User: Fold this.
Amino acid sequence: MIAIGGGGYVPARILRSFLKQPGSTNIPIQAIGLSLYETLPANKASKEGTSTPPVVDRDIEEPGTKVTRTQWLDLSALGEMDNLVGKRVLIVDEVDDTRTTLEYAVKELEKDVEAARARVGGEAAQFSIFVLHNKNKVKKGSIPGNMVEEGRYVAARTVGEEWICYPWEAVDIDEHDRLAAAQKASGAQQQ
Ligand code: 5GP
Assistant:
């Protein structure tokens, strides 16, 4: 499995328990870090400190359209990439929103594993995707059509455009649970 951090870490770990076959070893989980960054206008960026990418003149991008790698697999000769050659690889993230991140992850992983295969030989790797939530919307990014047709894209839930607050993001889990219960109750009342 390859978990896209940080949202994919907890789902990947949970999934590992469900995918474990009796008598076999645990499925290894590797991590990549991807973030959609946004470039802000110069005056806003300078007000908000240094956590945004450098602003180049006229280099203003749509928010959340460009993926940056914060962590990647080891590309060295005996590294993690070679181990993926010929394997079935499940990419795990928490949510498929615009699909930009998943498009990037699939394309770049396929490219790097193919490069490793050219070096060490062997079968092509086969990639699949698991997300907890897929937002039902027009996507900016795309994934290979055959991935969907062959059932290699699985979303546990398909949801609307709402923002999802995951428990592992909560600083105060009791508050998170309280708000979740209140939302569930108000949803039940409306039905
Ligand atoms: P993308 O737009 O590339 O599909 O998603 C990029 C990232 O935005 C996701 O991996 C996730 O970290 C974050 N994201 C998108 N929608 C939500 C949401 O509803 N809740 C949370 N917590 N994160 C989200």
Q: What stands out?
A: The first strand starts at residue 2 and ends at 5. Helices lie at 9-19, 42-47, 80-84, 100-120, 145-149, 173-190.
